[in-house]
Amino acid sequence: MLSCDWGTSSFRLRLVDNQTGTVLQAITSRRGVKTISSAPSGEPFRNYLATQIAKIEERSAQPLAFVPVVISGMASSSIGWKELPYGSLPFLLDGSQLPIKQIPKAEEFPHDILLVSGICSSSDVMRGEETQMIGLAATHNLE
Q: What is the CA angle 82-15-87, rounded to 5?
């Protein structure tokens, strides 16, 4: 799978082996969501993501068409690709309570996208860290 943590000021894309959780390739940049203007269709985000996936594809020497992309962080905020509501605390570590948006693959972008929202309490919010907690919990069989 392709794992993307797209923050306000940074972009992190990783090709991850689903069986072992090993990061096979990674790209980081300072092209956070704040630097990419959003059109209603999400095209600027999709175009930048496609460029970065092509770089990982070239580095890994393996075709990545149809490999799904999971995106967390500020990409689901009001300045991001598609605004999603926050999930609320407490939340289950299986991720079932997180708001998500599935964006199906298209001819010009052959990757299904799973856009993951953040969580909030009455006094604070996070986008991205909750996805890391879910992955950590799954890795260590925590419930």
A: 35
DSSP for the chain reads: -EEEEE-SS-EEEEEE-TTT--EEEEEEES--GGGSPPPTT-HHHHHHHHHHHHHHHHHHTS--TT--EEEEEGGGSTTSSS--PPEESS--TTSTTS-EEEE--BTTB---EEEE--EE-SS-EESSHHHHHHHHHHHTT--
Q: Write out the two tokens for 55.
A: 């770089």
As a whole number of angstroms, the distance between CA 91 and CA 95 comes to: 8
7-56 tens-digit pLDDT: 889 999 999 998 888 899 999 999 999 888 766 667 899 999 999 999 99
7-21 per-position pLDDT tens digit:
889 999 999 998 888
For residue 44, what are its two tokens? 């600027």
C-alpha 73/C-alpha 45 separation (Å) is: 13
pTM metric for this prediction: 0.85
Tell me the Cα Rg of the chain: 15
For residue 15 the two structure tokens come to 């090709």
